[in-house]
TrEMBL record:
UniProt xrefs under Pfam families: AAA_26, DRTGG, PTA_PTB
Domain Phosphate acetyl/butaryl transferase: residue ranges: 373-691
Protein name: Phosphate acetyltransferase
UniProt similarity note: In the N-terminal section; belongs to the CobB/CobQ family.
CDD domains: DTBS
Enzyme class at the top of the EC tree: transferase
Gene: pta
Length: 697
């Protein structure tokens, strides 16, 4: 079930805060604990806090640590991007969001503000973030100072950007629209949006756009002379007091901000008197320009007044001050209670979110991104720490991966090999890998060596193995590591960085053996493509499986999908789709499909089917319009090893996909094989897969 919503825009000053405040109020009326999260915040001075976060946490009294409410500042984000660490950005955002998801009933996520340079990049980050968090979005754009064409164009662009990345859009909001154009705005949005997407239009509320005296003081670096307690006064308009008082008084409007040189005592005192007079409108404050302040006698007179407004002294001249005040963009602050309440009441008047919140809470996310999948692997492995043996302990890739795994304390590790050689390699590589915290075993010097050899002899003596042969075999790291698993001294093994597949899995087949009811050991790769995770099987073990073996591989692969949080939609691949193809190879796939349907009628399966019809929705609907799998397959079963191995490598190389695996299926205990061309990431991910497999055994 969904536990989050993403508030997104593609421009600054869109009024996004209104949606966040209003939606937070609505959510707190529906559920007990609501968290708040901003993946990216604006840069703030040292010791200061993000205003958006402070406002939400303070006004709604959310008891959550400030540090939990964001992931990166804009500068940190740009620095990570420039260092080529975009993946780390998403990983950190997912991790912090998931922590809140575990602690709260619902999480409101507010996108970034698009201040400064790089707004296009920032928008892309928002789209990718929403996709990787697996939560739907509400898109808001401003209609202020835009033509209809410009406004609708921005709405379409935002909508298409999210839809193209397979992000669900729940609602679109046109904000800052003239009151008389609200219905037109909703009608125009409805013309290009599906019926299930809600549309709302909110008018321009001038009082929300007007800055407070506090914001003006900050923007002008002013000195407060009087009226500290009234700095939240909002300005309605502003004007320069340069004419004679009798003429200036006629220009005053409600909540006017008076801007005048600091030596114009007549304007200052006249404006203050007008403020308390029932015959004139109230003013919000007075700005004294030129670095001038009233004479002591005028100060004394002001101090004796019964009612006062903020009086601010600034260094700039009147002309510059006027221009700066006109350029100030108003924000909502934690102590802007009047503004916050005006914002929420406006939201509640024009946005009927109660039905939407019901949809939101019951929303079922679909699909899983590679980053979500990898995050899920780490979290699953952390649930129950397992002990994994790595027989190739002197391989650099193995050692570097072991260092990463130990750093996040996700598994216990034993390295096999000469202890001195391994320790020297750790030092040479400069790894932060404490030899005292990682177990290193030299098989021939091990206390368990004789016991392991005797056990192997007892297991294999009916096959003509004598004790000397067993001792000889036990000097081999693959046999020793596999025996550790058999004896319960380790939970799983990962090897193959320096050994063949046969060398890695032969010991497992000899005495780990297959699960009851399983006759075929097979493999799958988790192919992490740009926007989805697909599972490929079998691409590593069985050269030419029979129809029965292919069916068993399919069922094992489906069970692996379920174990890793993937709902399998199975495509039995061949060179033809449906009933059109002829020949022994396609008949074998067709027969295997029927066997699976008979044994596991609960599985969604289609076959034979071509690759393009399996994964491309338009091709799938064209070739097999009645299929629930065509165009949506996420488990692809290849008819033979030649096809599978070449396809996974082609997809990996041509698309840049991360291929996690192969993960072996069907054994009583997890033993997994690496490619001799594996990377450190391959080792890291395969160890995590193995640890998760061990949890279920």
């Amino acid at each position: 079930m969904n536990k989050g919503i993403y508030i997104a825009t593609l421009e600054s000053h869109s009024g996004k805060s209104m949606i966040s405040l209003g939606l937070m109020r609505t959510l707190l009326g529906k559920t007990v604990k609501v968290g708040y999260f901003r993946p990216i915040i604006n840069d703030v001075p040292e010791g200061k806090r993000d205003n958006h976060i402070d406002t939400i946490l303070s006004y709604f009294d959310l008891q959550m640590p400030y540090e939990d409410a964001f992931a990166f500042t804009r500068n940190e984000l740009i620095q990570k991007r420039n260092e080529g660490k975009s993946g780390e950005i998403i990983d950190t955002i997912i991790r912090k969001y998931k922590k809140l998801e575990e602690e709260y009933d619902f999480v409101l996520v507010e996108g970034s503000d698009f201040s400064g340079e790089g707004s296009v990049f920032e928008f892309d980050v928002n789209v990718i973030t929403a996709r990787n968090l697996g939560i739907p979005v509400i898109i808001i754009t401003s209609g202020k100072d835009k033509s209809w064409e410009e406004h609708l164009g921005s709405l379409r662009m935002a909508y298409n950007a999210f839809i193209e990345k397979d992000v669900d859009v729940l609602a679109m909001v046109s904000n800052k629209i003239l009151e008389e154009n609200l219905e037109t705005a909703k009608k125009n949005m409805r013309e290009f949006l599906p019926e299930e997407i809600d549309v709302f239009a909110i008018p321009l509320v001038e009082t929300l756009n007007n800055p407070t005296l506090k914001e003006i003081v900050k923007a002008l670096d002013g000195k407060i002379l009087f009226g500290h307690e009234f700095l939240n006064n909002q300005t309605g308009n502003f004007g320069v007091g340069a004419m004679q008082l009798r003429n200036y008084l006629t220009t005053l409007r409600n909540e006017s901000l008076v801007i005048t040189p600091g030596d114009r005592a007549d304007i200052i005192l006249g404006a203050l008197q007008a403020n308390i007079s029932s015959n004139y409108p109230r003013i919000s404050g007075i700005i004294l320009t030129g670095g001038l302040t009233p004479e002591p006698s005028i100060i004394k007179l002001i101090e004796g007044l019964s009612e006062i407004v903020p009086i601010i002294s600034v260094e700039d001249g009147t002309f510059n001050v006027t221009n700066k005040v006109g350029a100030i963009k108003s924000n909502i602050y934690a102590d802007s209670i009047q503004k916050i309440e005006t914002t929420i009441s406006t939201f509640e008047r024009y946005v009927s979110f109660d039905p939407l919140v019901e949809r939101l809470i019951n929303f079922q996310p679909h699909g899983i991104t590679p980053r979500m999948f990898q995050y899920g692997l780490v979290k699953r492995a952390q649930q129950s720490k397992k002990h994994i043996v790595l027989p190739e302990g002197t391989d650099d890739r193995i050692l570097i991966a072991a260092g990463r795994l130990m750093a996040i304390d996700i598994v216990d590790i034993t390295l096999l090999g000469d202890e001195e050689v391994i320790k020297q390699k750790i030092m040479k590589l400069g790894l932060n890998l404490d030899p005292e915290k990682i177990k290193i075993i030299n098989p021939v010097k091990s206390e368990e060596f004789e016991d392991y050899a005797q056990t192997l002899y007892e297991i294999r003596k009916h096959k003509g193995v004598n004790l000397d042969m067993a001792r000889d075999w036990m000097t081999d790291v693959s046999y020793y590591g596999t025996m550790m698993i058999y004896k319960g001294h380790a939970d799983g093994m990962v090897s193959g960085a320096a050994h063949t597949t046969q060398h890695t899995i032969r010991p497992a087949l000899q005495f780990i053996k297959t699960k009851p009811g399983v006759s075929v050991v097979s493999s799958v790769f988790f192919m992490c493509l740009e926007d989805r995770v697909s599972v490929f099987g079998d691409c590593a073990i069985n050269p030419n499986p029979t129809a029965e073996e292919l069916a068993e591989i399919t069922i094992s692969s489906a069970e692996s999908c379920f174990a890793f949080g993937i709902d399998p939609k199975i495509a039995m691949l061949s060179y033809s789709s449906g009933t059109s193809g002829k020949g022994a190879d396609v008949d074998r796939v067709r027969q295997a499909t029927e066997i699976v349907k008979k044994k596991r009628p609960d599985l969604k399966i289609e076959g034979p089917i071509q690759y393009d019809a399996a994964v491309d929705i338009s091709v799938g609907k064209s070739k097999m319009p009645d299929s629930e799998v065509a165009g949506q397959a996420n488990l692809l079963i290849f008819p033979d090893l030649n096809t599978g191995n070449n396809t996974y490598k082609a997809v990996q190389r041509e698309t840049g996909a991360l291929a996690i695996g192969p993960m072996l299926q069907g054994l009583n205990k997890p033993v997994n094989d690496l490619s001799r061309g594996c990377t450190v990431d391959d080792v890291f991910n395969t160890v995590i897969l193995t640890a998760i497999q061990a949890q279920g055994m």
